[in-house]
Design goal:
By secondary structure, the protein is an alpha/beta fold. The chain is built from 9 helices and 5 strands; from the N terminus they run βααβααβαβαβααα. It has one domain: 5'-nuclease (Rossmann fold, 3-Layer(aba) Sandwich). The radius of gyration is 15 Å and the shape is globular.
């Protein structure tokens, strides 16, 4: 089940790129958009800091796999969230796209109040397992890589994600 269009925030791009797994996102989403604030945070600031993931995301942008889009009007977000997250929600509303890729709990709540459907990095990776883009073993490697890169996951969520991936991979066989 592929998502047709999605607006992504910085964190999912950073950690999937750190794990060299941007292809996972591209395997389950047809068109990926990011607002300029996210590009600034991930690529411009990331390159300034010498982060490898910034170059991987920039390559995906230059190859047309991720599209940078200007936000013309900020949506009145009801919960205080990071400016990049406000732009993600605003761009989704502007473009009429209901799916947003956000990991922050407050940002996800703000997107739901804006009548959007948030999905997180884990959700994308689990979709890839369901779509047979990743095996269970590849899922485990990917989740370990993003956690090792600094992605924070509560232990219970980590365990539930592994159980879900196991179940999805068993249903495929």
């Amino acid at each position: 089940m592929k998502i047709y269009k999605l607006i992504s925030n910085a964190t999912p791009l950073i950690y999937l790129a750190k794990a060299n797994q941007l292809r996972v996102l591209q395997s389950v989403v047809s068109k990926i958009y990011i607002p300029k604030a996210v590009y600034q945070e991930v690529v411009v600031e990331g390159k300034r800091l010498g982060e490898k993931d910034a170059y991987r995301v920039d390559k995906a942008v230059s190859e047309g796999r991720i599209t940078v889009q200007e936000v013309t009007e900020l949506y009145p977000v009801e919960i205080k969230v990071h400016s990049g997250e406000v732009e993600v929600i605003s761009l989704a509303k502007e473009m009429g796209i209901d799916r947003v890729l956000l990991d922050d709990v407050k940002a996800r709540a703000a997107s739901e109040l804006a009548e959007l459907k948030p999905i997180g990095t884990l959700g994308i990776i689990l979709m890839a397992v369901k779509d047979q883009e990743l095996s269970f073993d590849q899922f485990l490697i990917t989740i370990e890589d993003i956690v090792r890169s600094g992605f924070y996951l509560k232990e219970d969520i980590y365990l539930r994600a592994i159980q879900a991936a196991k179940k999805l991979s068993e249903n495929i066989m």
